[in-house]
Amino acid sequence: MFHGANISDALLIIAGVILLPVLLTVALTSCARVFDWFSTATDRYISISIACEHCGAPFAFKGRDCKSCGRPISEGHLRRYKLRMLTVSSWMLAILSLILGNFLAVLILLVLGLLFWGCERRNARITRDSGNQRTEA
């Protein structure tokens, strides 16, 4: 016999379709907040060893200006700082995942950290080489 779909099954399907994007948004937002928290903790408690290119003070910025001298920070310097923050944060998350016992996440985060580190080194080399061309010209 053919059983028609009753109203409760239809409402359940509609609720599932509506709830799926909401759950995905909540999951992505919470992951972004955890990553932001790790970035803040890394910035405050771990020495990043990047200094301002103008005054030499430890790297801290407000907007796009240095907090100590007030001069604008160059895009290359800011990009290198962000890549260093991503590297250290991914390694901190890898340690946390190792403590929790999720070895696949540890492997993914370590590879991601190495990728960010390689991008930072490449970016620093490109910036250094472009600076040498300006001084030679």
Number of E-state strands: 2
| Radius of gyration based on Cα positions | 23 Å
Tally of helical segments: 3
- What is the overall silhouette? elongated
Judged by helices, strands and strand pairing, the structural class is mainly alpha
Distance between the termini: 86 Å
Domain module count = 2
Largest pleated sheet: 2 strands, antiparallel
The pLDDT mean sits at 77
Enumerate the strands of the largest sheet in spatial order, edge to edge or round the barrel: 1-2
Overall helicity: over 70%
Poorly predicted ranges: none
* Sequence of secondary-structure elements: HEEHH
Into which percentage range does the β-strand content fall? under 5%
Brief descriptors of the model:
3 helices, 2 domains, mainly alpha, 137 residues
Topology:
Elements (H helix, E strand, L loop, with lengths): L6 H39 L15 E2 L2 E2 L8 H26 L2 H34 L1
Antiparallel strand pairs: 1-2
Helix pairs in contact: 1-2, 2-3
Question: How is this structure best described in words?
Answer:
The chain has 3 helices and 2 strands. The chain is mainly α and 137 residues long. The chain has a two-stranded antiparallel ribbon. Helix 2 (75-100) packs antiparallel against helix 3 (103-136). The relative contact order is 0.08.
Quick recap of the structure?
This protein is mostly helical and 137 residues long. It has 2 domains: 1-45; 48-137, no CATH class.
